[in-house]
Design a protein that fits this description.
Blueprint: E1 3-10, H1 16-26, E2 32-39, H2 45-59, E3 65-68, H3 73-77, E4 85-88, H4 91-101, H5 111-118, H6 120-132, E5 147-151, H7 157-168, E6 172-176, H8 179-184, H9 189-192, E7 198-202, H10 205-215, H11 224-240, E8 244-247, H12 253-263, E9 279-280
Parallel strand pairs: 1-2, 1-3, 3-4, 5-6, 5-7, 7-8
Antiparallel strand pairs: 8-9
Helix pairs in contact: 6-7, 7-12, 10-11
Length: 284
């Protein structure tokens, strides 16, 4: 039987971080239904007491979960009471970091959001670039791309490009390998001169066949023979131009994005490390 649990995200700022962290943790408990509420901008102990009264009234003594990112100790301590199950997301980690770094933290509410806002222009530029350079559009501007994804139709180029832009602030272009390029065994000169920043996407013929069949059942385009031929020709192009090759089969968009930037050595120090399966290529 599914149980229900009340959850509150309280913060001295927007409560977005408290909610993000709390949701990430609660996602591990699939057998429980959570009733969630966000309570932002709790600046003073008086604000906290009013919020706590609301929480206790709503939860009717059922000991709700409270995820907190409030920096001010007096305000934060209002929620650390027997009537709720209190989780301070920042405090223990922040104290450990202060000890490790030998420095005091700012303890300024909302500072991480201020930092995010300062990066917004870069993210917006990346999104615009990726949308304007989707599916082979404007290849003359590929010199400005930070990463270029190449692949046959339905190999996942667009969703990975958009993820790279929206979550990693990277200017990602993508280019479809059509019959013109595959049959001529040629890549556009704009890609060739930027090949160090290009990643060739691939998969098994059966995987591509199944994807294409869902939209174009029974077509030559979706046939296993055609998928096999296109993938073989694409791989020959990748190898001819010493491109890194990334297998998209069975991977999430997030994993593919990280593996793509690892494949070309982009911001290695700043990106999480994943097992480098099915990433191949030759030094250029």
């Amino acid at each position: 039987m599914t149980t229900t649990q009340d959850v509150y995200y309280v913060s001295g700022s927007t409560a977005i971080l408290a909610e993000d962290m709390g949701k990430a943790l609660l996602a591990q408990f699939q057998g429980i239904r959570f009733r969630e509420e966000k309570i932002p901008f709790i600046y003073t102990p008086d604000d906290a007491r009013k919020a706590l009264d609301h929480i206790l009234q709503q939860s009717a003594g059922n000991q709700p979960l409270v995820f907190c990112t409030i920096m001010d100790q007096e305000t934060r301590d209002v929620f650390n009471c027997p009537e709720v199950k209190f989780f301070d997301i920042f405090l223990n980690t922040l104290e450990l970091l202060e000890g490790a770094l030998g420095a005091k933290a700012l303890r300024e509410p909302g500072y991480s959001r201020h930092f995010t806002i300062s990066k917004m222009d870069k993210r917006v530029d990346a999104i615009h670039f990726s949308l304007e350079h989707d599916d082979g559009t404007r290849p003359a501007e590929y010199d400005d791309a930070e990463i270029i994804l190449i692949g046959v139709s339905r190999s996942g180029k667009t969703p990975v490009s958009i993820y790279l832009a929206t979550h990693m602030e990277l200017k990602a272009a993508n280019f479809p390998l059509t019959a013109d390029h595959l049959d001529k065994h040629e890549l556009p000169k704009e890609i060739v001169r930027n090949r160090k920043r290009a990643v060739g996407l691939t998969c098994s013929p059966n995987y591509l066949h199944n994807i294409r069949e869902k939209r174009y059942a029974g077509s030559t385009y979706a046939s296993l023979a055609n998928c096999t031929r296109e993938l073989q020709q694409a791989k020959q192009l990748y190898m001819r131009h010493n491109l890194k090759i990334l297998n998209v089969e069975g991977r999430s968009i997030e994993e593919l994005a990280v593996q793509a930037i690892q494949a070309i050595g982009l911001t290695k120090k700043n990106q999480p490390r994943l097992r480098a399966r099915d990433i191949s290529g030759h030094s250029s």
